[in-house]
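Example for tutorial group B:
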């Protein structure tokens, strides 16, 4: 069977189950934590997640767990009007993350969950990713653009 179909069906059923139990937000947050840090499971694990894992074991579908959880997060965000966004900076900057969050909330009209990280290889600037968009305002990208233009111009001369 197609892995996309399997993960989609289980995720849809899991989403419906947690929403009926009124535990959607708690399960959603814990699933995001599990996906972000798979090496260490949070304690205590939500009972609904334990039930999902138990069901997957019974059905011999544990290989699909990560796909199911990713699909669950995507579907939950779509239903609840949530935008997952990520900002990467060269140095820690909570002010930038807060400003980007408020700007995205204004532009999309949706609740934005922001994740921040630091990548010194950017040299300066920032990268913002949300939905299918990526805004790369890093110094490293600008240097790469200059390098690429320089190579292109020199290739024309020869």
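The residue assignment follows.
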């Amino acid at each position: 069977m197609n892995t996309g179909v399997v993960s989609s069906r289980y995720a849809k059923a899991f989403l419906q189950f947690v929403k009926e139990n009124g535990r959607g937000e708690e399960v959603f947050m814990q699933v995001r934590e599990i996906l972000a840090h798979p090496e260490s499971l949070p304690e205590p694990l939500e009972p609904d997640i334990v039930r999902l894992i138990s069901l997957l074991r019974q059905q011999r579908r544990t290989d699909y767990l990560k796909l199911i959880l990713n699909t669950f997060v995507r579907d939950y965000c779509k239903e609840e009007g949530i935008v997952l966004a990520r900002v990467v900076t060269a140095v820690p900057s909570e002010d930038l993350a807060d400003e980007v969050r408020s700007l995205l909330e204004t532009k999309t009209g949706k609740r934005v969950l922001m994740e921040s990280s630091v990548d010194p290889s950017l040299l300066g600037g920032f990268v913002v990713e949300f939905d299918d968009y990526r805004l790369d305002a890093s110094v490293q990208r600008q240097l790469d653009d200059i390098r690429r233009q320089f190579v292109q111009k020199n290739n024309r001369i020869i």
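The beta strands are 82-89, 111-118, 125-130, 133-138. Compare this with the pattern of hydrophobic and polar residues in the output above.
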